[in-house]
Amino acid sequence: METQIAKLIDGKALAEKIQQELSATITELQPQIGRPPGLAVLMVGDNPASAAYVRGKERACAKVGIASFGKHFPTETTQTELEEVIAALNQDERVDGILVQLPLPDHLDAVTLLHQIDPDKDVDGLHPINLGRLVRGEPGLRSCTPFGVMRLLQEYEISLEGKQAVVVGRSILVGKPMALMLLEANATITIAHKSSHSLENIIKNADILITAVGRPGLITAEMVKPGAVVVDVGISRVTDANGNNRLVGDVDFDSVKRVAEFLTPVPGGVGPMTVTMLLQNTVTSYSQRSKI
Q: Integer distance in angstroms from the first to the last C-alpha of the chain?
């Protein structure tokens, strides 16, 4: 009997579709509002990965019609200087979204800086007020990566109602808000992490499995319930036997694709959606702050 191969969840295609919709929305609203939406990405230092992410965000902004007010600061920039920049951006009517690119140099307090951002301009969805709105089921800007996962599940018409959902990882960036969004969609949630006993048994029960740990090959076919939906948020760079670098997720893709019903690839699954939901949050802020 031929083995069923999982259907791929294509984040790249959905990201493209949403970006086209956002571009159309901006084209419609801009004459009424009198300006384009604005996003300010603040980066400190010379982290090559961060620089690449920021360039990608700025390219995506340009593609849909969002103005970039990004600033790149030298490594020695002080906490006070950054707080003053954020305060000015909070008051700047041209700016709808503010994002501090992490990680920051060691002498800076990222949490305090994130708290300085106006919650209605917090397009990363990480301010305590926005996380509180999520807990309470109130409207607000949502954390980009889990928000992107929810849009993918919606696009592929994957029902969450009453399903057993397991989230592996409990970070404030992905794991915790992901679990809350799934709970809001009436799934039954388990959060697993490095201290969980019998991880394999926990995962085996999942109708919906979302993993965000950053450990290559953590999830193998034996751990996955046949017919499960597997969303791989993890991303790691590995070197193969030939010395070539490539990106991989937490899931052993080649084995799990023979067990799961749906599976996200890495790259090309969740990654493109994270930047797109950042754009979505910026446009949401733009329309709400302009009362359109």
A: 56
| 2-6, 76-80, 109-113, 223-227, range with the lowest pLDDT | 2-6
Binding-site annotation: residue ranges? 169-171, 235
Q: Which residues are catalytic?
A: 57, 101, 124
Taking the C-alpha atoms of residue 274 and residue 18, their distance in angstroms, rounded to an integer, is 12
249-255 contact pairs (CB < 8 A, 24+): 249/211, 249/216, 250/168, 250/211, 250/212, 250/213, 250/214, 250/215, 250/216, 250/217, 250/218, 250/219, 251/211, 251/217, 251/218, 251/219, 252/217, 252/219, 252/220, 252/221, 255/220, 255/221
Q: Which of 199, 184, 191, 190 is nearest to 153 (CA)?
A: 184
Determine if the pTM surpasses 0.90.
Answer: yes
* Residue stretches of the annotated binding site for NADP(+): 169-171, 235
